Amino acid sequence: MTGKLLTINGLTKAYPGVIANDDVSFQITNGEVHALLGENGAGKSTLVKMIYGLVKPDAGSMTLNDAAYAPNEPRAARSAGVAMVFQHFSLFEALNVAENIALGMENPPAMGQLSAKISQVSGDYGLPLDPHRLVGDLSAGERQRVEIIRCLLQDPKLLIMDEPTSVLTPQEVDILFATLKLLREQGTSILYISHKLEEIRTLCDEATVLRGGKNVGTCIPRETSASAMAEMMVGTRLSPPQKAYKKLEKTVLQLNGLNLSPASPFGTSLKDITLEIRAGEILGIGGVAGNGQDELLGALSGEAKSAPQSVQMDGQNLGHLSPNARRKLGLLAAPEERLGHAAAPDMTLTENAMLTAAERENLQSNGFLNWTRSRSFAEKVIARFDVRTPGPENAARSLSGGNLQKFVIGREILQNPRVLVVNQPTWGVDASAAAAIRQALLDLAADGAAVLVISQDLDELMEITDRFAALNEGRLSAPVATSDLTVEKIGLMLGGAHGMEVAHDTVVHP
Amino acid sequence: MDLSAINPIVLIASLMVASTPILLAAIGELVVEKSGVLNLGVEGMMITGAICGFAMAVETGSPALGFIGAALGGAALSLIFAFLTQVLLSNQVATGLALTLFGLGFSALIGQSYIGVKPPTSATLILGLDAMVFVGIGIIAVTWWVLKYTRVGLILRAVGENHDAAHALGYKVVLIRTAAIAFGGACAGLGGAYLSLIRVPQWTEGMTSGAGWIALAIVVFASWKPWRVLLGAYLFGGITVLQLNLQAAGVKIPVEYLSMSPYLITIIVLVIMSADRTRTALNAPAMLGRSFHASN
């Protein structure tokens, strides 16, 4: 358990206008799980990309096992024993598991042998996987297994994991941790990137905290409280969102046996979804990505049309109406993908404000657009939601993820919706922006709107929702009051761990 | 009307000859599209190959050297496309259309002194079929084998499926795509030369007359599968030859309807093929037509 594996010395990387990493130094010892903590934009991704050879540092050096280490491409990093599991999976949907794994190896054996080896390694580590299945048909947890096994087949000395649990159910997280602990026992070091503090406290031996590209300190996670680590990460104290007392009124939105087939080949069909939301209520819908979240948002926003009576608002049939007709009646939606779905990347904020608010904010008359009013509406959103941008004439693409997210959510909230549907409202958003967005959703519900929050972040759902339902393979469970729930119960509602419980018992301890 | 004048064996042989140009161009374009690039300049590369091959064969007196020249000419033109779209990141659709227009004009310029010239005749093997017919089938077989069973093919498919992931794994996306584009250009050039050296055989301006566009349609018809390219090309060639035979046999349908029938049937088949939207999307390379720019 002793001996330095990787030493990072003064790594610096600057991009035009921003210093992503500023003189970062730390060490990883053999057989430890080392956490890299930080907010979005703190420079974690840039740092690991330098370790993995995807980005060249401007200054600084690294040593691996007492030898100078300066990979100029991932291939060099892999042959030096460094492997990486990406946050956004670097997989190919139309290829099968074995082909995906072969692509990540330097000298893959013939396909037949490789398949046998995959089955063997996946059995050894309790991560069952069929080498011949198409990756597009796998769940998020199974896709991650593909990435992990791809790394394990190369016997890495250092395994880098970038936010590995963000797409997993709690049970899948347990299984992943069991695998990682097994690897640690075998002497593999793991660099574990996350901003989930409780996870780091249960798993990691040491933590390095980045803020604004600088190393602001290290700590032993087991001996440090989560709130102390959060303060190191953010630099200030965060106040949790406040739930106001509210009284629930009559049902506003109803889904009656909604069925919908997907628009894309790897999409999920919605099966017999029934729910109702009352005014003043926040209903949370949890579930692992790819279980019908995008399709549900589409069915509600009007992008996908369904039978007229399957979507009802105030007793009126909406299923056959277009998005604009639904907006007019007060059913608004903010989809997950900020760039390209919620906002047009190359259009200005004024133009983006026009795109969804034209109907309700009277930004048009007789087909003519009133840009002055659209601009002042955009300015209102920017001011009210603290969107950091030079002005409404900037392109949506130029905003950071958190700021654009505040803009697209704020744009819908300020239109005074009867019902607001949001998908992953704080995905990839830093902690302070996330807190602001959650507070805004709570305020909106307190003012009497019905809010439907689709999210994969269970902590978020526990924090702000009144009732919770789980979406699993296109089916929706019956909603349960959030106050009666624990994270374990939610995990079971999410459909268990996709058949992973069996594997859990067969983990081999060599 | 005398249908007995149509000899089935001659019909099949002439079908194979008629479909070889589009078969060659289509298998090249299939490889290009598998790598995630949409090159709409097939017509331009074909006609450039047609004149390059024709000039080379006339000057050297050797049809084989002519075909080599055609492949080089087509590949050279496609490298302009590769430079514009892969290095300068220009729009693939617009650049491809420009390549077609450029190729048509450029070939007319080179071809000024070759109008009315007779090319050297190629040797025939059996049933009046020349070697290129079998070379075309051979290219299809090799392409199928490479795409399905080799690492090069796997990397090519991966680049077309998700270029960001391929880049993250350390594959050189731009280099791989450039190689695919050059292969596509060479195949289109061979197809063009087959028209000017064997099928017609002489040089006239704009002699490809839409064959490049048919080749593009056949790639979609084939759902990006090599053997189906053969099927699609023979289907199209078969209808072309059949309508010529029907005209000769004096069928009492206006000639215009018969000549438009291959194109009409192509459109109908494409509509039927793409009726199931999800299945078409499943076969198409996911990155088709999207520019790649390494973001770090």
TrEMBL record, chain A:
What residues does the ABC transporter domain cover?
6-237, 253-498
Pfam families, alphabetized = ABC_tran
Q: Which GO terms describe its molecular function?
A: ATP binding
Kindly state which keywords UniProt assigns to this record, in alphabetical order: ATP-binding, Nucleotide-binding
Keyword Ribosomal protein set for record: no
Q: Specify the domain of life of the species encoding this protein.
A: Bacteria
Q: Give the signal peptide range.
A: none
What PROSITE patterns does its record include?
ABC_TRANSPORTER_1, ABC_TRANSPORTER_2
> What name does this protein carry?
ABC transporter ATP-binding protein
Protein source organism: Parasulfitobacter algicola
Automatic annotation (TrEMBL), chain B:
Cell compartments where the protein resides: Cell membrane
Does the record carry Aminoacyl-tRNA synthetase as a key word?
Answer: no
Positions the record marks as coiled coil are none
Q: Domain of life, per the record?
A: Bacteria
Residue ranges of the TM segments:
6-25, 37-58, 64-84, 96-117, 123-147, 174-195, 207-224, 231-251, 257-275
Identify the PANTHER family for this entry: ABC TRANSPORTER PERMEASE PROTEIN, SUGAR ABC TRANSPORTER INTEGRAL MEMBRANE PROTEIN-RELATED
Could you tell me what this protein is called?
Answer: ABC transporter permease
